[in-house]
Amino acid sequence: IEVIFMKFESINLGSIILEVIDYRGKTPKKLGADWSDEGIMALSAKNIKTGKIVQHDTIRYVSEELYEKWMKQKVTKGTILITSEAPFGQIYYWNSNEKVVLSQRLFGIKIKPEYDARYIYYYMTTQDFQNELSGRATGSTVKGLRQPELLKCVVKIPEYKYQKKIADIISAFDDKIENNNKVNNLFQKIINYCYSKIELDNNCVEMNLGSLINRNKEKIKEMRSLVDVLTLSATPIPRTLHMSLVGIRDMSVIYEPPHNRKPVQTYVLEYDEEVIKEAILKELERGGQVFFLYN
């Protein structure tokens, strides 16, 4: 086990910045041009949510010629993007060599090479930094951020080798989250495809996804050969239990009940119609179901 003692130095953000890219006042009209249907992305503040690019359908584009007029200072890999207002204080690490235009309420900073830009980005997403950012904001109705105030914000920095270690660990989690999101999106596409292929009568339009899969799982399995079916059961039927014992099906046992689950109460009583009536009515009143076996 390696025990690490890190010494953090408090430094103003402005002293570790190599370059500030700020073209928030520019528009295609001011540059004698217009938006394009395709080309180079022009991001605004509404497209940035910390760690993500969002609202892809609102992203606009510019031509190569307009890009050269607009972006005299270029966004390069490692540039940190910051929203100045609406929304306020969202941070994004540009981890690409793709060209991009910074437009409304969005500017970028490039970090000096003797500091790890990824570490600085992650620190800027912390609650400590965000609190200081909010404290330096202006405006009572809509919070705004002026560039000089941003540069006064304090960043706590360890030695470079520890900056890199910290950034490597956090970015590994980011990569894992991104991969999981890709898998989830793929699964959603498969579900949507299956849904579009299954013929449902008018009475089934309002059913939930669980009901849809349960009623049509054989059809779904026919459409895709690599479909895993998860079955949950409190008391598996003998055939299912036998299939798991001989290795045809895998079975996992959940030994601990779900949180807040109420235990099942069992009573052995003499036959009494009043007790039966009371139990049935109580269950129906709470919206439950009753299965009554009479022998």
What this model shows, in words?
A hairpin with a 7-residue loop joins β7 (80-83) and β8 (91-93). Strands 2-10-7-8 form a four-stranded antiparallel β-sheet, covered by helices on one side. It has a three-stranded mixed β-sheet with strand order 6-3-9. The model is unreliable at 200-207 (pLDDT under 50). The radius of gyration is 29 Å and the shape is elongated. By secondary structure, it is α+β, with helices and mostly antiparallel strands. It has eight helices and eleven strands. α2 crosses α5 (160-197).
Protein structure class: alpha+beta
> How large is the radius of gyration?
29 Å
Pattern of helices and strands: EEEEEEHEEEEHHHEHHHH
Which percent range describes the beta-strand content? 5-15%
Q: Helix tally?
A: 8
Residue-averaged pLDDT = 84
Q: Describe the sheet with the most strands.
A: 4 strands, antiparallel
Can you describe this structure in just a few lines?
The chain has 295 residues and is of the alpha+beta class.
Task: Outline the fold blueprint.
Elements: E1 9-12, E2 17-21, E3 40-43, E4 48-49, E5 52-53, E6 60-62, H1 64-70, E7 80-83, E8 91-93, E9 100-102, E10 106-111, H2 117-124, H3 127-135, H4 147-152, E11 154-157, H5 160-197, H6 209-223, H7 238-245, H8 273-285
Parallel strand pairs: 3-9
Antiparallel strand pairs: 1-11, 2-10, 3-6, 4-5, 7-8, 7-10
Helix pairs in contact: 2-5
What features would you highlight for this structure?
single chain; 295 residues; alpha+beta; four-stranded antiparallel beta sheet; three-stranded mixed beta sheet; 8 helices; 35% helix; elongated
